[in-house]
Amino acid sequence: MDRSVGESGSAGADYKSCRSADSDGGVWQARDRALLFENLSGFPRWRCLGQAPSDVSLAPLAFECQRNEMVPEFLRRTERLGTTRLVQSGPVKEKKMIGNEADITKLPIHQAGVRDGGPYIGSGLMITKNPETGRRNMSFHRLQMKGPRKTGIFIYPRHAWLNYQLYEQAGKAMPVAIMIGHHPMHYFAAATTTQYGVDELEIASALLDEEVELVKCETVDIEVPAHAEIVIEGEIPPKVREDEGPFSEFQDYYLTGSGKNPVVEIKAVTMRHDAIFKTVQNGSEVEGCVYHKVPMSAQILRRLRSVGGFAEVKNVLVMPGIFTVVVQMNPRYYGEAKNVLMAVLSGEYQHPKIAIAVDEDVDIFNYADVLWAISSRVNPQEDIVIIPGAKIHAMDASCREFGSTGAPGWHRIGGKMIIDATKPPECDPPRRFEFERLRPMGWETVRLEDFLPEGSPPPRFQSLLDNPR
Ligand SMILES: Cc1cc2nc3c(=O)[nH]c(=O)nc-3n(C[C@H](O)[C@H](O)[C@H](O)COP(=O)(O)O)c2cc1C
Ligand SMILES: [Mn+2]
Hints:
By secondary structure, the protein is of the alpha+beta class.
């Protein structure tokens, strides 16, 4: 794969050069464009790329579609898995530092959040294997720098944790390869949770619509993308836990996940001779959440379309904070939206806690519009249901915690909620008609631009035509 695709903005954002990267505050402020830092203090010749993409509304450019089509397009591209191919070498092998030569303190790893426990790699995609089947898994994991050849790692109980448990029970270290920096589609793929056993590199290939070339690691039996910027090789020893955290997390808090977590012992670093260090700012409504929102929305959409035989589910969007999901649908019967919302709350992903259904005339990318639907279409005593005592995402600080991070059995218990903010269904036309949304006269034909003097700034408000209701 040609690296210039990733570099020049397949993510769609405008790249801007900056002179200094002393603080991550600048990255945080870039909500409308990616930032390429060129002159990193203390790290001569390094470049660092952040916020690419910086906002979920920019991600559609990577999928070459309008924002309303992005999640369905993700789903379409991943209906079939792609392919990988082993090649002899690639740019990620241009420099090899093996054993004592490997030193991650030479990489521009930095502290992102005010209360983070020190410098972290927030952009590492870890590839592991099931020791019995050899099937690969790729997932995001925060890595706390602990020395030249050591990091702490947080592994939430999911596929990589399952693999680690298999090695740990056998008293063996788990070999790992951590990729830092590649096309954003690899990041979307790594944040996709699907069935255990599916290789996320094949999802990356499907999203890219091209074969992903892999090369063998130098010190572990794992294959990594040949065109990555940087790869860290190592292993996670069994039965070792050390303090790890805090870290700026996706819900915009620091503490969840902190505690006794495993460590990575580094055996090698390979990279391009002019590698760009990819940083991922984590938190709500920054780059990290974009990688959460798009694949999670797509996986949920896949599931919902088959509820009750088939449901007319048009779109799904994960809301800020990640624990709330909005479903855009066209209910045909009373109760159908509730059935769909129940399915949102128990899927592959553990995050969904609050599920909201709205109609097609609500713009789910406009949070004010979603609140409007809740205000004007919800009768709380009929349309809101709370399911008590459900298993909640263990990173959701609002619910009661059992056990602790890094140990089997860690989880949380709490309520889940569905909010049916749809209007009466198709089968009841008179009631439905009461909820026909008002439109201004001429809304389909009049364009404000045609009435403004030439050269005047474009109108600030989006045309209704951009979002047909
Ligand atoms: C920006 C970002 C950071 C993440 N950090 C972590 C992490 O530190 N530890 C972790 O276990 N999962 C983390 N995740 C979540 C996993 O990557 C994601 O849920 C993935 O689907 C897990 O893969 P799996 O289903 O193969 O286990 C992160 C996700 C994103 C988008
Ligand atoms: Mn997986």
